[in-house]
Amino acid sequence: MLLLQNAHVVPGDGHPELPATDVLVRDGEIAAIGRGLDAPGAEVVDATGRVLIPGLVDTHRHVWQAPLRGIGPDMTLPDYFAAVLGRALVAYRPEDTNLAVRLGAAEALDAGVTTVLDWNNTPHVDAAAEAYQTLGMRAVIANDQLRTDLRGTLSAALAILGPEYGPADEAEAHLRRARDLGILVTMHLGGGRTPSAVSRMDEVGLLGPGVHLVHLNSVTPDEAKLLADTGAGVTVTPLVEELMGHGSSAYGRLADAGCRPALGVDVVVNSVPDLFEVMRATLRAERTRTAPLLPAARMLDAATIDGARAIGLADRIGTITVGKRADLVLLDGLAHLAGNGDCAGAVVTSLRPSDVDTVIVDGRIVKRAGRLIGVDLAELRASATEIAHRARDRGTFL
């Protein structure tokens, strides 16, 4: 058992914040929330002056690219296809995928991301799964292989090219097969292409809760309404979309139509490996686009419960709720607000990965007092350098 005492709890999903509140975790599950909880034998974490939020949920990241961080600050989308997918990817061996995913997962956990949908282009799913198990991270591993053997904190999704990047009949067949198996299907769609294939997918009955669409920069208001009405999961990745020229973020159009868009890092070749800056980038864009000002706290929901909804995990994670799995993050830096302030909004506008004090995944502490447990992040980065060098040897990136 684990007892977090005297935290300023931000449950999420619009629920009121709870000052000076305890959270009891038993067998990886949130067992009780309240003041003065009594739990003989529990490990106690003093959370006084800290803000407790649900673990952040990154619903679209190519985690295997962690060793390539920063190699393409001026990289366009065609450059990325040629250099990263065309040259770097084919240089990866199973052991490279394992090391790269361990690095990417460690960087995510260090920044308070407890769940990631890993759009894993490599053929080495087993190596990736082993990496997540080693780090203790919750992950949805999306690949072109239909996997049904992942358990515990790991689950599978089918990653497909989709009707805009491959044959439409092939995409339809993949979607129907995955739906029959109850497996999430994720694809890139509308990333700068006009028009998107949303309407075509609706016409053949392929939109719904088991479908997860990423980017959607070219989505129209009518298409956004179709997505909202059918319950399809949607994710935007504003930083990468802006830097690579996908077009303006679809977050506002999707939200206006009734969707609850989730957020993703996408790639780190020209972006950061955390969701704090992604939340702020989305907030800045929305406050420029509309009036009155969008509440900052809305972005914390986008990075937690909306992410969980988008990838079919809202019954397990995304809020601090009795009965859900204990994916939790304790944050420093807001002790002056804890107890009487709008901490959710302040988390979005004012904190960064260095303010992540404690990270808990499925009831297990994986970061404590600002340091990952059993993981040397600097050593991982040094070890992964050789992967980047070997990938570069296959040809210049730019």
Structure report:
With 398 residues, the protein is an alpha/beta fold. It has two domains: 102 residues, Urease, subunit C, domain 1 (Roll); 255 residues, TIM Barrel (Alpha-Beta Barrel). It is 34% helix and 23% strand. The chain is built from 13 helices and 17 strands. Strands 1, 2, 3, 4, 5, 14, 15, 16 and 17 form a nine-stranded mixed β-sheet that branches. Strand 9, helix 4 and strand 10 form a beta-alpha-beta unit. The longest helix has 17 residues. The radius of gyration is 20 Å and the shape is globular.
The counted number of beta strands is 17
What is the CATH third-level topology name of the largest domain? TIM Barrel
Number of helices: 13
The oligomeric status of these chains comes to: single chain
Q: How would the global form be characterised?
A: globular
Q: What is the makeup of the main sheet?
A: 9 strands, mixed
Distance between the termini: 51 Å
Instruction: Give the CATH superfamily of the largest domain.
Output: Metal-dependent hydrolases
Strand content: 15-25%
Gyration radius, rounded:
20 Å
CATH architecture of the largest domain: Alpha-Beta Barrel
Quick check: average pLDDT?
Answer: 93
Structural class: alpha/beta
Helix-strand sequence: EEEEEEHHEHEEHEHEHEHHEHHHEHEEEH
Q: Main traits of this protein?
A:
398 residues; alpha/beta; 2 domains; 8-stranded parallel sheet; globular
List the helices and strands and how they pair.
Blueprint: E1 2-9, E2 18-26, E3 29-34, E4 43-46, E5 51-54, E6 56-61, H1 77-88, H2 94-110, E7 113-119, H3 125-135, E8 138-143, E9 154-159, H4 168-181, E10 184-189, H5 198-203, E11 211-215, H6 221-230, E12 233-236, H7 238-244, H8 251-256, E13 262-263, H9 276-289, H10 297-302, H11 305-310, E14 328-331, H12 343-350, E15 356-361, E16 364-368, E17 371-372, H13 377-393
Parallel strand pairs: 1-4, 1-5, 6-7, 7-8, 8-9, 9-10, 10-11, 11-12, 12-13
Antiparallel strand pairs: 1-2, 2-3, 5-14, 14-15, 15-16, 16-17
Helix pairs in contact: 2-3, 2-13
